[in-house]
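anyone seen this seq b4? input:
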Amino acid sequence: MPAKCWKDKLNQPKQPKRVVLETDFAGIKAGTRLFVGTPLLVDSYIRSIPRGATRTIERMRRDLARKNKCEATCPVSTAIFIRMSAEAAIEELSEGVAITDVAPFWRVVEPDSKIAKRLPIDSKWISVQRDAEAKESA
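predicted toks r here
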C-alpha cells in the first residue's frame, strides 16, 4: 500500500473530543476541560483567517476551546494538525493549485517556529507571504 499523502491524512474522518484532564498535561492543569479537535477543524479555522491577518497558535487554541465550551485546546494535537494542514497546502501548491485556494497556513505558522522548521519550504517563504498580504491590506 502506498504511503498516504498529507491531503489524505488531513481528510481522514475523525471526531472531536472533550475530556477532563485527570493529571497535568502539556502545561494544562488537571481538572481542565480540554478540547481535542480534528485535522479538518484546524484546517477550517486556518482557512477562516482573513487575508492580511495573522493569528497566534495560542489564540487559535483559545478560540477553538471557547467555541467548543472547553477551557483549553490540546496543544500537542493542535500542532500536529496545523502541520498536516500546512503540508497538504504545500502539496497542493506543488500540484499547481492557486495559492488563493489552499489553506493559508502562513497566517498562523510563525516563520521561526518549530512547525515552520519541519516544513519542506524555506521559512523565508512564510515571511514573504505574510509581508505581501500585509501590504495588500494596508
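The chain has one domain: 6-137. The longest helix spans residues 75-94. kinda curious what u guys think
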